[in-house]
Amino acid sequence: MARAGIDTSRNRRASAAKTGDGSAPAPSSEVRRVVAVEYVRRMRGASQPFLLRCDDGGLYVVKFRNNPQHVRILANELLAASLARLIGLPAPLPAIVEVPAEMLEKSAKLEFQIGSRNEPCLPGAQFGSRYPAGSEALRVVDFLPDRLLRRVPSVESLFIGAYVFDKWTCNCDGRQVIFFRSDEREDRAYSAALIDHGFCFNDGEWNFPDSPIRSFYPRRIVYESVRGLRSFEPYLSRVENLEAREIKECVEAIPGEWCGDAPDEAAHLGERLVERRRRLRQMIIEARDSALRPFPNWE
């Protein structure tokens, strides 16, 4: 299913955004391919990812095909990260990480802990998310107190855009965000990146069990600026105006071995995403009218 490179016009919509690794979006949608060269440490999460250094010098949070959750977690991560970057959201750069068998043989820590037994990671093509740390001077956290959260650049726009994205992709997990800063930065403000998209498209089910009370970030202060549907721009219009071809090309970049027993279902997943663009506004209105009342300042 994967192709060597895909040339789309996604960068015209994302040109004003910054990605999770602090760089501007890539000029094309070609999926980066790198080779893992060094084990760094375990990371938290139910899929039991690992932080690996790769041959481009970067660090990547790597999820393996035989992770304890589902192989489609990898497909979901790649597709969701590509779509998020397509509409200008700050998602880390995704990559296909080739993990050589020789590296696994030398790294005994590259194994899953499943109950009382250990299971070795499989070699081959895995999903990698570029980690925003390149030096000891960079601090990465997953929680900020309100006073620091409010100082994150464009924080309200970021979380409103993430909400639009999560409604569209039916993210069945809570919104995960990391915050990072350099200790050398004078204003000491954190930047943010959207991570952990494995439960978009409802995990390995690849369906859309929508609920008005799903997709919210638990810190409701990020929605204080919402006054109406116009508050969800520009991300709402960016999703609605995506071309079916662009979505299809993101789907086609998924390696077939990441799609489980029915790889042909990926094409249907792309078709559903195309259809769902037109339902976004109604889904947001239904959320507004839910018992949660998540947008207290909606006029």
Number of helices: 9
Rg on CA atoms, Å: 19 Å
Question: In angstroms, what separates the terminal alpha carbons?
Answer: 46 Å
Shape: globular
Question: Helices and strands: which structural class?
Answer: alpha+beta
The protein's oligomeric status is single chain
What does this structure look like?
This protein is α+β, with helices and mostly antiparallel strands and 299 residues long. The chain has one domain (11-288). It is built from 9 helices and 10 strands. It has helices spanning 11-14, 72-86, 101-106, 146-149, 155-169, 235-240, 244-252, 265-276, 280-288, and strands at residues 32-42, 50-54, 59-63, 94-99, 111-114, 117-120, 124-130, 138-141, 176-182, 191-195. Strands 1-2-3-7-4 form a 5-stranded mixed beta barrel. The protein has a 3-stranded antiparallel sheet with strand order 8-9-10, with helices on one face. Strands 5-6 form a two-stranded antiparallel sheet. A hairpin with a 2-residue loop joins strand 5 (111-114) and strand 6. Helix 7 runs antiparallel to helix 8. It is globular and about 60 Å long. The model is unreliable at 3-12 and 14-28 (pLDDT under 50).
Give a topology summary.
Layout (H helix, E strand, L loop, with lengths): L10 H4 L17 E11 L7 E5 L4 E5 L8 H15 L7 E6 L1 H6 L4 E4 L2 E4 L3 E7 L7 E4 L4 H4 L5 H15 L6 E7 L8 E5 L39 H6 L3 H9 L12 H12 L3 H9 L11
Compact description:
The chain has 299 residues and is α+β, with helices and mostly antiparallel strands. Helices cover 27% and strands 19% of the residues.
Give a quick set of tags describing it:
299 residues, alpha+beta, 5-stranded mixed barrel, 3-stranded antiparallel β-sheet, 9 helices, 10 strands, 19% strand, disordered N terminus
